[in-house]
Amino acid sequence: MNDEKSSTSGPSIETILTHGGRTPEEQFGFVNTPVYRGSTVLFKTLDDLEAQQQRYLYGRAGNPTTESVETIVTQLEGAYRTRLLPSGLAAITVALMSCLQSGDDLLISDSAYEPGRVFANKFLARMGISVRYYDPRIGAGLADLMLPNTRAVLAESPGSLTFEVQDIPALAAAAHAGGARLIVDNSWASPLFLQPIALGADLVVHAGTKMFVGHSDAFAGTISATEEAWADVEANRAALGFFTSGDDAFLVARGLRTLAIRIKEHNERSVAMASWLEQQPLVRRVLHPALPSHPDHHLFKRDFKGSGSLFGVVLEPAPRESIAAFLDHLRVFTMGYSWGGYESLCLPVKLSKNRTAKPWTEEGNLFRLHIGFEGMDDLKSDLADALERYARAR
Ligand SMILES: *Cc1c(COP(=O)(O)O)cnc(C)c1O
Predict the structure, then answer these.
(1) Could you write out the DSSP letters of every residue in 66-105?
(2) Pocket, ligand 1, Cβ cutoff 6 A
(3) How do residues 283-333 score in pLDDT, each as one tens digit?
(4) Out of 60, 122, 320, 350, which one is annotated catalytic?
(5) Catalytic: 210?
(6) Is 151 a catalytic residue?
(7) Are residues 309 and 230 in the same domain?
(8) What is the pTM assigned to this prediction?
(9) Number of domains in the chain
């Protein structure tokens, strides 16, 4: 396996993941930063209390365990700083609020993670912010949508359910020319395979719940930002009272140690499974940017160093009975929300009210797959049988 260079000229990403954020000399020599649990931080004297110069002042602003994660992600993303948040959705909401105020305008990719849309439509709109959506494949055409009061653009590449790749440098140029910040949700690729700040993004958010934690057993999110964007991120996080516990932070740090080997394995497996699926009966289209058949494959090849675990597959049209026959008797794949764990997942996808700028018109039934670490032959035979059931129930 080749080393993955970080966007800065420092150590490789593998070395950052292994050694980053650890301070054994401050932990009696123990390798890992332990779980710090604490609200109160003690001061010795009135001078100390008034000076507010101690490294820690109050637990809500962070502790050594949360900082250990923030340090790693900052290095991975080539950011100025990073904050750990309680969920990926919290990372999106705080990132948006850090860029916007009443009277501003927001542009969101039509392919972005749906709960982020709900936050924008239901909450930001109530705060006097206009929310509009753009075709995920718009690229430099974003410039035509920019209004004088557009202050933020939220991109996600590839998109959550439909896997369009976005032209991040073009979006960044258009956003910056109009005085807006570009936020990129980088959960799919992880910083191993895409570093949006190097491509012009101002803020990068992660659903740490997925690839960072890697075991489906904790929630986390991160916001990494450039120096210019940082102060607003931290001021908004602090004002809103967000804090992530040392217990959860420890699980994120533990997951990050193996991120490189996990995502390289996910990459190989998801590409192999996607290529195999392309050859199967009743498969209309596989939505995986690493496949040459993907309409944005050229952008993927230009910007990404590999792919995540997740992709879509569109099957030829069939009634609900076929979808149920496909899903209800899976033996190895399981059905559930989230992704990024060791277990393979398969989910039916409905696209309707979550597409407004560029309605999804493709016929057929869409499924989203997360390829985990089971035997590849077991996974293939599970899907082959499911496709047979789908066909029989048509
Ligand atoms: C899951 C997900 C989120 C939200 O993360 P949570 O930790 O579940 O809140 C955000 N973005 C993407 C792309 C996701 O897949």
Answers:
(1) HHHHHHHHHHHHT-SEEEEESSHHHHHHHHHHHH--TT-E
(2) 87-89, 113, 156, 160, 185, 187, 207, 209-210, 219, 221, 338
(3) 999 999 999 999 999 999 999 999 999 999 999 999 999 999 999 999 999
(4) 60
(5) yes
(6) no
(7) no
(8) 0.97
(9) 2
